[in-house]
Write a structure and sequence with these properties.
This protein has 147 residues and is mainly alpha-helical. The chain has five helices and two strands. It has helices spanning 15-27, 29-32, 39-58, 66-87, 102-114; strands at 132-134, 138-140. It has a two-stranded antiparallel ribbon. It is globular. It comes from Plakobranchus ocellatus.
Length: 147
């Protein structure tokens, strides 16, 4: 007969560990979110996650490896995304509770991902009848009429 061995679960991330994880992710956000997948870029990302895991482990009695920290970060982002999707829904059902660290994650995701996109030439979308006032007391008038 085969002996059955149960997998031993680690405890959930404590609030202290999750807070430390978010601080370290914030510090390394550009490295972690790199889209390049070259050998060098992957090595840099792996080193960043190893350093994050080392510092998170130092804050508690539980050892966390890089895969656990990476998964926790991914799960936190997914929880925020699911919450935002639920909030944009048309109703029905009970309201969903706000996920932990919602404000911090949403702010950082919005700053690093959602605002990046296709650059828009402001003069292409500008109503020529209204002067455009920029910071530093610079005013752009109707470019076509030369005013």
């Amino acid at each position: 007969m085969a002996t059955s061995s149960k997998r031993v679960r680690k405890p959930n991330f404590s609030e202290k560990e999750a807070t430390k994880l978010l601080e370290l992710v914030d510090k390394n956000i550009e490295t972690i979110n790199q889209t390049a997948s070259t050998l060098r870029a992957n090595a840099v990302k792996k080193a960043a996650w190893q350093e994050i895991a080392k510092e998170v482990s130092a804050t508690s009695l539980v050892h966390r490896d890089e895969d656990e920290c990476r998964k926790k970060w991914r799960d936190l982002k997914r929880a925020v995304s699911a919450y935002r999707t639920h909030c944009r829904g048309t109703g029905g059902g009970q309201p969903q509770p706000e996920p932990p660290f919602y404000e911090w994650i949403f702010k950082n995701l919005r700053d690093s991902v959602a605002l990046e996109g296709i650059p828009v030439n402001i003069l292409d979308t500008w109503d020529n009848s209204v002067p455009l006032i920029l910071p530093g007391d610079i005013t752009i008038m109707d470019v076509n009429n030369g005013k």
